[in-house]
Amino acid sequence: MTQRSDQPSPAADPSGPYELLGVPADAGFDEVQAAKLARLDEVGDDTMARSRIEAAYDAVLMERLKERQQGRVSSAAKSASQREQLAPPPPKLAVPALPQLQLPRVSAPQLRLPGLALATGRELWFPLATSGALLLLLLLAPGFPPDLVLAFATAMAVINLQWRNRRFLAAVGWGFALLCAGLLVGAILAGALSSTLPLGLPLSLTQVQSLPALLLLLLGALLIG
């Protein structure tokens, strides 16, 4: 005698495994698995019904596996692809525009070179008188410090340039530049001469070095306008 199995074959069921699970033939794997769990909850402890649902679920999986092995696209995959094509595109997230930072415009400072023009009036006689007195002190008063003479000459040039240009910082800059240039020329001149100048006029090297600086400060005060 042939012993009959208590578990019926889902192929013998005229409704088919999909109808037994309550899903269409193009249902995806997640839908089939969810339908299986829902059907098992419905039948409760009915052993026969639970066996039929498990068999239907296995039959669906075997059918999908055979289709893949034969290189065929399953109906579920076709349906999923069609649903993706028909589904509306996801809404684009609107990214708020970043506020534009407006940096303050910084204009480059314009350099204005002073012109050369002979001073008149007070700007003419003041540097002439001051420089003449300082020159006499430098040549005729050996005991008077030449550094102090140059300090007075630099102050004279700065004051006169301030009167002419109304720019204090520029006047200080020009006075310092004229002093440095004059000292450089004086150092070169003092190095080329001996401690005593020709014609027997005894002058120290410091006095010789101070003369070009005094003259340059006078010319700058008279001509830089």
Rounded mean pLDDT score: 76
Q: Biggest sheet, open or closed, and with what strands and sense?
A: none
* Helix content estimate: 55-70%
Specify the number of helices.
8
Structural class of the helices, strands and pairings? Answer: mainly alpha
User: Into which percentage range does the β-strand content fall?
Assistant: under 5%
Integer-rounded radius of gyration: 55 Å
Spatial separation of the terminal alpha carbons: 134 Å
Give the uncertain stretches in residue-range form.
1-12
Number of strands: 0
Explain what you see:
The chain has 8 helices and no strands. The radius of gyration is 55 Å and the shape is rod-shaped. The longest helix is centred in the last third of the chain and has 25 residues. The chain has 225 residues and is mainly alpha-helical. Helix 5 packs antiparallel against helix 8. Helix content is 62%, strand content 0%. The N and C termini lie far apart (134 Å).
Précis, in short:
It comes from Cyanobium usitatum str. Tous. With 225 residues, this protein is an all-alpha fold. Helix content is 62%, strand content 0%.
Task: Spell out the blueprint of helices and strands.
Layout: H1 16-21, H2 29-43, H3 47-69, H4 75-86, H5 122-140, H6 146-165, H7 168-192, H8 205-223
Annotation keywords:
single chain; 225 residues; mainly alpha; 2 domains
